[in-house]
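Re: duplicated header lines in exported structure tokens

Our pipeline writes sequence and tokens for each protein into one text file. With two proteins the header for the second block appears twice in some exports. Here is an export where it did not happen, for reference. First protein block:
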Amino acid sequence: MTVDTQGLRTSKDEGKTWSEPQPVCKGINPKEPASFYVLRAGSGALVIVYLDLSDDHFSWDDAAGEPKPDCRCEFWAIRSLDGGKTWIDRQRLLDGYNANFFGLIQTRAGRIIVTAEHLVSNPGHWVACSFMSENDGKTWKRSNLIDLGGHGHHDGATEPTIAELSDGRLLMLIRTNLDRFWQVFSDDGGRYWRTIQPSSIDASSSPGHLVRLNSGRLVLVWNRLNPEGGTAPKGGPGVAAECAASWYRGALSIAFSDDNARSWTKPLLLARAKNGLSYPYVFERRAGELWFFAGFGGPLRVRANEEELFQEAKKNSMPESGDKVK
């Protein structure tokens, strides 16, 4: 199942052909990757959370380093109780300007969680948060804001991705300009995020996609800080960010964790392209069968066996979270 500008479509042949669209609402635009997600809840309800791109407008004052008052891209949710025939409870979750996000999940307890990034002023930068629903998207509550500082239209805590751990905690990995993902934990189902710290995962200023698989493992696909065997030049500081950062996007890597993100396997090179690969998406089509896509670059369409990848990757491991990192 997926959504395009015309509506909801389903496929019964592994994506070779698709049904006629069932209209949903305006504003959903798949040309912008990581701008919407579809979730089928355990109850059968369909929930879509999306950026309304029908009237978005990015407006930034370079001299002041602040978003202008007309800067707007709103964050919305809508749901269906009849398989997508009709849609109800359309509601705005966040006004102002919001951007790409990498997570809409349902926990084992039935709570639906979606991540978000939100542009704030004084100083202008991004903060992250989440929304939770305990009634299949009928109503939502926002978490506390996660603020890592920064100043610039691509600085701060951006493009969060999320997974549930085996002990019930939630883990969010956040894109930063600080050479690595920052990790944030919630032990109350996403109501509050209290533990905020740098992770051991080196990363360029690019998002990753974190997924908990049927096997219980975590899988992460992302752009590393540097290319294999080399060093990526850093750009900035400037209006985008207050510190120099790697913007390397020439390749996507993959790593696994089977101990709730305390440690990760050796990153494996998944794919590379001269025009870059970024904004990844991982889909577990069936248990152990992983599909990988890239929103920018490529095109990337890869199907792989989880166990084969894991066995190759676990030959070496990255430092445990909290270990000293260079």
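Second protein block, exported in the same file:
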Amino acid sequence: MIRAPRLPEPEDFDSRVRRPGTKWLADHPGAKRPKALWSACTPLLEAGYHKLCGYAAMADFTGGTVDHYLSFKNHRAKAYEWSNYRFASATMNSCKRDADDTVLDPEEVRAGWFEIVLPSLQLRLTDRVPARLRDKAAYTLRRLRLDDGERVIRWRQSWYQLYTQGRLDLDGLREVAPLIAEAVERERVKPAQGAVSAARR
């Protein structure tokens, strides 16, 4: 995960989504699923997140989904609130379901809290995660299978292979998979550090 942007509410959100959504909720008090009036927001979220899934921190060119950070199941009144929307891949959205705020909000994540390990491409916490959030961060990795889940590893491999095959440069990798790019940069520094240490002996 990387920090997701807190995007300003679109000017027409109230008229296109919130007000008709509030009416729909009043007319359907027993509904199990809300009407997807937020669908028009998907392109705005996608652009604001630079196509990066808020949880996997990788580009999702399938179009992604609008994730309700606080689920309809537990927070009906938040179904049509812009502040409750996050851009997420369908896979991450499906894993999260109604976990709500038991997982980290992409908007509260800070730089350096997570890192990719090469060559396994597994994700792990760093010591920069605040102590009060470490358990929550660890649960987030397990719940969303971000640490070593088969699907997310394959997803990372697809971007990493494009880089190692020379079909994507480091700047391109930063755009589509910033945590993998950071891992590559760390690996580049290691040989240089080793050479400096050897020269000092």
